Amino acid sequence: MSEYDVIIIGAGISGLTTAYLLHKKGYNILVLEKNDSVGGHIKTTHHEGFQLEAGPHSFLGSSEYIWKLIEKLDFESQAIAASSEAKNRYIYRNKKLHPLPLSPFSFLKTPLLSLKAKGRLMIEPFIPNGAKEEETAWDFFQRRFGKEAATYIMSPFVSGVYAGNVEKLGAKAAFPKFWQFENDSGSMIWGAFKYMRAKKKRFNKEGLSSRKGLYSFKQGLGQITKLLGEKLKNNIRKEIDVLHIKKESETYHLHFGDHTIKTKTLVIATPPKEATKLLSSVMADSVKLLNEIPMAPVTLIHWTVPKNIPIPPGFGFLMPKINNKRVLGTLFPSYLFPNRAPDGHILLASFYGGMLDPIACGLSASLLTNLLLQEHKEIFNTDLAQAKILKITRYEQAIPQLLPTHLNIINAIEKELKTCPGIFLAGNYITGVGMEQAVASGFQAAEKTEYYLKKRKP
Ligand SMILES: Cc1cc2nc3c(=O)[nH]c(=O)nc-3n(C[C@H](O)[C@H](O)[C@H](O)COP(=O)(O)OP(=O)(O)OC[C@H]3O[C@@H](n4cnc5c(N)ncnc54)[C@H](O)[C@@H]3O)c2cc1C
Q1: Distance, CA 299 to ligand 1 centroid (Å)?
Q2: Among the CATH numbers 3.90.226.10, 1.10.443.10, 3.40.640.10, 1.10.3110.10, which is that of 113-206?
Q3: pTM of this prediction?
Q4: Which of 121, 174, 194, 361 has the fewest CB atoms in 10 Å of its CB?
Q5: Nearest residue CA, atom 52 of ligand 1?
């Protein structure tokens, strides 16, 4: 039998979190990772003096599980808040970038929305509660905020988080907090207000500090996955592609290459398609549902322009689909955190592809470069002759799409997993697609595993 209490498949942030928490509690764990490095989508690299993020570029200060992990790693000193410029976020409309309004006065003044749309948005608290379990995100946002605000504000926001199709994503599955606000309070605005007030009260009571805005680490987000990798270095085996799992009585046989490892307790922390492959011989029915979770393809282009190019300071911009441009949005990382670009340069990160334009991901590097330069010349209304492409990163399966049926899928899997004692899942497809949800899934998988191990002990 295995010398390990638990084997974890996948060393993305979900698997690393699970592994670290169990390791810290004294369990003998082993992580098996397909790639030659850990971190999954969270990785920071360096290129010609630029610091590039392979996936996420920041996390929200309100991310409770990420802070819990940082605290456990005693890593607070490495966390950095984004500059005050990060609060400027832009949306493209009528051939211009418009800042998202930050105050009631700027809301009234902004040309981003028509007067009628502003009026419709302001009556949101009085729109009757119509929360439905399987409503799409588009129907939900349109119903609450009106068509214009849904088109120019909510849809690009959805595209920024999911690279998805707002008409296909489920409101409750993909935006559970927003859905709950309406369900509990009858209004998203009023629900959000009540939620923030309750959170503030809880934080005061528990002596927690509430952090606002965006955060990263001094050496980029990859600093945390690198640290987790170092802490677990004797417990990780890289370049191990687990191909399938077989169950014999209460033991799981993990096959890779010519090898097999046996274990009684297993955490699968891979994307859903890989989890399907691994579980196909131990779970008969719901595993097919897991395979049906669509994954948005995304291509990320890091590029740079000299500092004299007039790019407005801020987090970046989002592109409403109605504008007929192919870029989903562009981040301005060097405005957010120090040391992201050498002096005299601005670092930009543009996203192409997604569920509505998967073909863009397959374009050749030269076509993508031409497209990017042509579109951004118009967006920034400036000459980009001095722009330089730094890196193109392509993901065939970047972001899970949580459709209206998603919660039924997860419930069915959880139910069937009861017939496979000792197997637990972690990953960003379970309750949400962000880094916070991935870390949260790691905490939950560690907790369930520990409970199981304690119960199983003679
Ligand atoms: C381009 C992009 C931008 C993003 N931007 C943001 C953002 O701004 N904010 C945010 O919060 N989130 C963002 N995300 C999402 C965030 O990156 C993810 O939520 C998080 O990284 C998911 O972590 P994970 O561990 O669940 O999965 P992954 O990072 O996918 O890790 C899974 C790991 O499992 C390994 N694996 C798979 N199959 C096997 C196998 N058979 N055997 C062994 N190992 C295997 C993989 O190699 C991988 O290392 C972004 C993602 C992408 C792709």
Answers
A1: 14
A2: 1.10.3110.10
A3: 0.95
A4: 194
A5: 55
